[in-house]
Every structure is written in structure tokens, then in C-alpha cells.
Amino acid sequence: MGLRVLAAMSGGVDSAVAAARIAEAGHDVTGVHLALSANPQSHRTGARGCCTIEDSRDARRAADVIGIPFYIWDMAERFQRDVVEDFVAEYAAGRTPNPCLRCNEKIKFAAVLDRALALGFDAVATGHHAKLADGVLSRSPDLAKDQSYVLGVLTREQLGHAIFPLGDSTKAQVREEAARRGLTVADKPDSHDICFIADGDTRGFLAKRLGSAPGQIVDQEGAVVGSHQGAHGFTVGQRKGLHIDRPAADGRPRYVLSIEPVSNTVTVGPRSALAVTTVRCERPIWNGPEADGPLTVQLRAHGEVYGCRYTQDGDELVITLDRPATGVAAGQAAVLYTGETVIGSATITSAA
């Protein structure tokens, strides 16, 4: 007997094919588009932005082709509070958040899943590129599109009610299938960057919400080398857009090493000073099997993978890397793997 499945349909090719596969497998599928913007634009700007009126129409057309019921759920208020306001607050606190990760955690697999279960659905299906078998999350075979990292914050219970139908497919295969199925989104560009900052200007977006807060840019010795209009406009590892007045003595580029929100100070230095081997984290979530074999950790979306080991003391997780990593930022997630399988995650608080 088939499951009652709620298919989250963004208006893109991945979620359309995911819904089609679930329906074809004999499940009772209902499509839902999440309206996340209080004032949606009519059209996307290339591959930027999402949740436009055009996206909701694309999702509805896909549902019609598949032959499933379709609804639009207004999640704009929840999205504004749990994702957008959280994003701004994290930057104001000197951290670098990942809003896609937060959206998966708070919207798609908290708010939506809770409502779906309350309405009698058994599971929520999405177009994420990740494998999920018996509640165990693993990487997609298409490593360039793998989204296991941004799903690594989900709990065992949430994964137990999730379905990722694209788990064994590459993006090219998904597009080919969409064309075969007559889905008009087959060639639609992928959305990227931060969906609620359609023009891609994160610094401008934050400046509008946090205002101008002039401060100093200093080197490792504390000498002032420049000024800024708000520490929230920077992230650890950043090289471009620093507008430093005094070049380094060796002529080499400088990078953001740390952000201190209380004093509103940004510290810069050479790339070598970014290297860290100890990553401290909080709020660990253990959602996978016991580690079987060597561990690796991913410290940012589509970032490098590092061999590691860890110790846990209450709510703190200390990860020791086998080799130095650079650009590790507080606020990002550290997702632990054994082989291709996710075993857990935690939020980075500091690195040294």
C-alpha cells in the first residue's frame, strides 16, 4: 500500500521530477508550493532568487502534467522570522550563517513536516540531491550537486519522515528525465546564492537592515589599516572588498581573520593565519549510524572534506582536523561523515 506523500515543489526541475517519481511509484501524492516571500517578484532574475510568482506557476504546471493535486502554502511569516531575521541576527553577532541549512531545518522539515503529519501525510518529499535509505543520509553520486551537508542538521525523526527521490541521480539525468516527462522546467536554471537576496548584494541587504556602523580594520598587531561601515559586511576568509588603506609589508593580499561585533572591529592578516586544526562546536545532532571507520568533516557548503576525530563534552563538540583548514567561520555547520554517510552535525562556535 502506498504512502500519503506531500511533495514540496519549488517550481524547479529537481522538485518536479522528485514529485513525478513518487507518484509513478504508486504513492498518493499532493504537491505544495511554499510561498516564502511576503512580496514576491513576478519573475526571477536569471538564476537568482526564488519563490516568485513565476515559480509558483511553474510548480502548478508541473503538478498538472504529473496529475496530482496542488496547493500553495503561505509560509512567508515563518520564513521571515526563522530564516531571514536569523540570518541578519547571526551576521550582527559576528557569525556567518547558512540560510539554506536553516530553511531546511526550520521550514521544510519543521513547519512543513509538522503540518503534513497533522494533516495525515506519512512523509515529505523534496528534490534535494542526497541519498536516504532506512533513515540514513548519504552523499549524492553527483558530488557537484550533493546537498547532504545542508541536510545534515535534520534529526533522526525528521529523516524518518523524509523522501529524497533523486538520491541516485545526477543533475544531467534529472534534466533528461524532465524533458522526457514533458515538464516545461527541464531547462530552467538552478537557483543559487541566497534566495531572499535576489540581486546577490549581501552587504547591501545587511546594511539596509542593520544600518551603518563605522569601525576599524586592524592587522594582527592591532595597527589600524582601514575602516568599514559595518562589521556585518564581512566574513572570515574574505579577501575581496576590504578597502584597506595600507598594503601589507610583504605586498601579499590580506584576508579577514576575525570579526568582533562588540568593538565592531575586523582583523585582517595573511592567508597562513587562517589555518586552523581545532574546531569547536555546539548543539550536536547525531542523526546517523555509529561511526564505522575513519571520520571526515565538511565545514561549509561545497567545501573541502577533512579527516578528523572528535571529543564531546556535554553540549560542546571539539573536532581535531588531520590537516589545517582555512576560512572556518562561526555560525556554519560542521557535518561529520563516515565514508559517504552522515553521522551528525554541530554549529561551529570558534576555530584555532
TrEMBL record:
Domain of life: Bacteria
SUPFAM superfamilies: Adenine nucleotide alpha hydrolases-like (SSF52402)
Organism from which the protein derives: Nonomuraea typhae
CDD domains: MnmA_TRMU-like (cd01998)
Binding site for ATP: 8-15, 34, 127
Location of the tRNA-specific 2-thiouridylase MnmA-like central domain: 204-269
Gene3D superfamilies: Adenine nucleotide alpha hydrolases-like domains (2.30.30.280), HUPs (3.40.50.620), Translation factors (2.40.30.10)
Name by which UniProt lists this protein: tRNA-specific 2-thiouridylase MnmA
Its EC number(s): 2.8.1.13
Family annotation (InterPro entries): MnmA-like, MnmA-like_C, MnmA-like_central, MnmA-like_central_sf, Rossmann-like_a/b/a_fold
GO molecular function, one term: tRNA-uridine 2-sulfurtransferase activity
Family to which this protein belongs: Belongs to the MnmA/TRMU family.
Gene behind this protein: mnmA
Residues of the tRNA-specific 2-thiouridylase MnmA-like C-terminal domain: 278-348
Catalytic site positions: 103 (nucleophile), 195 (cysteine persulfide intermediate)
Pfam family, one: tRNA_Me_trans_C
